[in-house]
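Homework help thread (please don't just give me the answer)

Our assignment gives two proteins as sequence + C-alpha cell strings and asks us to describe the second one. The first is just a warm-up. Here they are:
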Amino acid sequence: MSTPLPTLDPLLHQPARTQLVAFLSGRGEATFSELKRVLGVTDGNLGAHLAKLVEAGYVATGEAAGGGRAQTVYALTPAGRTALNEYVVCLSALMALSAGSTQASDLSPLLAGQS
C-alpha cells in the first residue's frame, strides 16, 4: 500500500489567499485598504477572497475606531492560524519530496497533525 501525498488546503492554495493569511499571521490585523495596498489587488478581488476566508472561519472581522470613522479590520482566527500552519507543513513535505531528500513513506511523522 502506498503512502498518500500531503493534501493542500484548497482554500489556502490560491496565491492571493495564501499571501493574505500569511500577512495577517505576522501583522495581527489589517484594514481593507491596507490589505488592498499590500496585496495589489482590486476591491472586488480582495472582497471575494476575504468573504471566502470569513465564511470558512479563517478570518474574523472587527471594527477599529480612529481617523474620524470606524473601519473594518480583519484578523486571522485560531482556526485560520492552524490551517496556515498545516498548509506550510504539507507544502514543506511536498518540497522535500521534490528535492529527493525524502520518500512518501517518510512523511508520516511530518504529517501527523494534518487533519
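The one we have to describe:
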Amino acid sequence: MAQLLTTLSQSSLQDYHDCPRRFELRYLQQLAYPAVEAEPALENEKHQQEGEYFHRLAQQYFIGIPAERIAKLANTENLQRWWENFISDKSLPNLQNSKSLMAETTLSAPLGKFRLVAKYDLIAVEKDKVTIYDWKTYRKRPKNEWALIRWQTRVYRALLAKAGAHLNDGNPFAPEQIEMIYWYADFPSDPARFAYTAEQHKRDWDALTKLAVEIESAPSFPMTDELARCNYCAYRSYCARGIRAGESDEAEVETEAQEFFDINFEQIGEIAF
C-alpha cells in the first residue's frame, strides 16, 4: 500500500516513528479525523487557528508589509501578545538586512522511491551562513533535547543541505553553514538553536533513506506499544484505545499539526529525479 504514497514530510515521518498504524490511517488510507486530538476541543481548535494565523502575519512582515499594518490584524489576545513579542525581538526585525529572505519556502529532493518535501517558515541567507526559522506557538516550551530528536529538526536541516543550492547562487550550503532556530511566541527570549555538521547530515540522510525503504516495503503498520501517545491521537477509536482526548496543554509537545501541501513542483527548489 505504501507504493501509493509519493511524498514524505517531517509530519508523516514523525507519525510513522510514533505509531505506524497512525501513519497508515492518515497518509495511506487518508481517513478523516474521527476524534478530537486534545481537550478542551474548542479551545484547542481556536489555539491552532491562531497559530496558523500568526504564521501568516510573520510571512506578511518578511515580504515587506509594514509592521503597523500587520499589527491591526492581530485581533485576539494571543495574537496581540505573540505579535508584540515578535516585533519586539530585535534579532527578528534585523533579519531584513540579510542577503536574502525566503518566507514559506518549499524544498524537495528524491528519497528512495519517494520525494521528501518540507515547507519552511523562513530561510535567512547571510554571507557565510543560512538560518532556518520555525515559529512555534506552544503553551509550554519543550526541552531542547526533545526538539533535537524530532524529525522536523533532522529533515529541515538535511533537506536544506541537500536541495538548497538554488538559494545560494547555485552553491550547496555546507552543513556547518546551517543553523535551525525554533522561535517560541510565548517564550521569545528563549529560542532553541541547533547548529549542524557534516557528520550529522550523513547520519540524518542515511536514517531518512533507511526509513523510506522501510516504509515502502512494510508488510503491515502495527499500533504503537506506548499507550500514552494514544491520548492525543485522532484515530484512537479505530484502535479501541479510548475515547477521551488528552489535555491540550500537554498535547503540543506530543503531536504536531498535520501538514497539508498544495504544491506546484515546477515552482519549488528540488533535486531532479
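TA reply:
I won't write it for you, but here's a hint about the kind of observation we're looking for: The chain has nine helices and nine strands.
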